[in-house]
Amino acid sequence: MTTVVSSILESLASAGKAFDINEAGSREALIEHSRALISALEIPSEFVQRSFWAEPAMSAIIRLAVDVKLFQLLKEAGDAGVTPSTLSEKTEINELLLRRLMSHLVTMHIITYRDGAFHSTPLSKGLAEEKYQHSISFCYDVSRPSFNGFPQFFKSTKYKSPTAGGIDGPFQDAHKTLLPFFEWLVTTPPHLQHFDLFMGAYRAGKANWYSPGFYPVSDNLISGFDPSISDVLLVDVGGGRGHDLAAYAAAHQSACPGRLILQDREAVIADVVAENSDKELPFEVQAHDFFTSQTVRDARAYYLHSILHDWSDEESILILQNLVLALKKGYSRVLLNEIVVIEEKPTLAATSMDMMMLAHFAVRERTEANWREILEKAGLKVVKIYSYPGIAESVIEAELA
Ligand SMILES: C[S@@+](CC[C@H](N)C(=O)[O-])C[C@H]1O[C@@H](n2cnc3c(N)ncnc32)[C@H](O)[C@@H]1O
C-alpha cells in the first residue's frame, strides 16, 4: 500500500503544480487523485461508515437545509456567523437537534464552526444559490429514490438491461408511475422547475462549449455565416430554460451576427416566458417538439446539449432525421454537446451520468463509435470531435453526409 500511496502523492504533487499555474483540467485531476488517495487509505469499516452513514446523512441534512433556508441564513450572517440559538430561532429547528445536524455538516467540510458560531464556506455560499437549491431538491426527491431502488428493481427483473425508451425502468418503479420521465415532470410540480434549474446547474462553473480552447465558434460558425442563406446563427434544440444561450449571448455581445433561438417543450417555454415577462431575453423562444420536423431552416448551427443521451438509438435517429430536413448542405452544422465514453478510461462524471441515464431513461451514455453510427444512420457525418481537459462532454460537430 505504501507504494500505491506514494505514487498517488506524486500524482497529487504534479497536479498541484499544474493547478498553481492554472492549467486546464488540473483542478479536476487533483480531485480525482484525492479520491484515489482516500480509497487507498480507507479500511472497509471506514468506507462503509463514510458511504452508508456519513454521506447519506449529509445529503439528507442538505435537503432539509433547503426547506429552512439554512445556507442562505449563514450567507447573510457574513463574517460574524450565526450562533446556534439564533439559528435555531430562525429555522425553528430545536437547538439540540440543530447542533447535531450542523456538527455533521462541519465534519463533512460543508460549513465551519468557530468562536461559538456557525459560518458559511465558499461551498455553502454557492449551494445557497437558487439553481443549486433546486438541484438539491431534484437530486434528493427524484433521483435518490430511483438509485435506492436499484437492488430490488434489478433483482425483480432478473438483472436484465432495462428496455431503452421503456416506461418500466427504475425511475417508474421508484415513483410508482407509468409515465416517461419528461411527462412525469410536467404532471408533478414542482419537479419540472427543479429539473430545469438542475440542468442549468449541473455543470455550471466549468468551461463552456464555446470557451477558448474548446469549440472554435469564430472559425467554424461566425466565419462563413451568411445572412443571405438565413439570419439565424444558432438554434438551441431542447435548450431548457436557455442557460446555454444566455451564457453564449453574454459572452458574444459584440460578435453575434445572427438570431439565437431557444426551443423546448410547450410547458418549459411557457415557464421561461412567464418568468421573464418583465425582462428582455437575449434570445427568441419557440415551443417545438423535436420529434416533429424542425421549423427553423438553414440556420448556421443547431445545438443539442444533453438531448440525445436521454433517448434510445432509434429515438435519437428520429430526432436527428427531423433536424436533417432543415439543414443546408455544406453550410449548417449540428453540434452535439454530449459525453463520449472512453471505455478504457472512464471518468466519474461520465459513469455517474450513465447511472442517471440508467435510472431515469433506461438508456446509456455512448462511445465515439456509437455516436458515429447513429449520426450516419440519420444521414449525417462527423466533421470533428472537440474536447476540453476536465470536461466530461465533448462537442461533436456534424453536417449533412
Ligand atoms: C436533459 S435536458 C437538457 C436541457 C439543456 N439542453 C441543457 O443541456 O441544460 C433535456 C431537455 O429536452 C427537453 N425535451 C424533452 N422532450 C422534448 C421534446 N419532445 N421536444 C423538445 N424538447 C424536449 C426537456 O424539456 C429538457 O429541457
UniProtKB/TrEMBL annotation:
- Return the Gene3D superfamilies for the record: Vaccinia Virus protein VP39, Winged helix-like DNA-binding domain superfamily/Winged helix DNA-binding domain
Q: Does the keyword S-adenosyl-L-methionine apply?
A: yes
Instruction: List the GO molecular function terms.
Output: O-methyltransferase activity; protein dimerization activity
Q: Which of UniProt's keywords are assigned here? A: Methyltransferase, S-adenosyl-L-methionine, Transferase
Q: Which residues form the O-methyltransferase dimerisation domain?
A: 58-127
Where do the O-methyltransferase C-terminal domain residues begin and end? 233-380
Which GO terms fall under biological process for this protein?
Answer: methylation; secondary metabolite biosynthetic process
Record-given protein name:
Putative O-methyltransferase
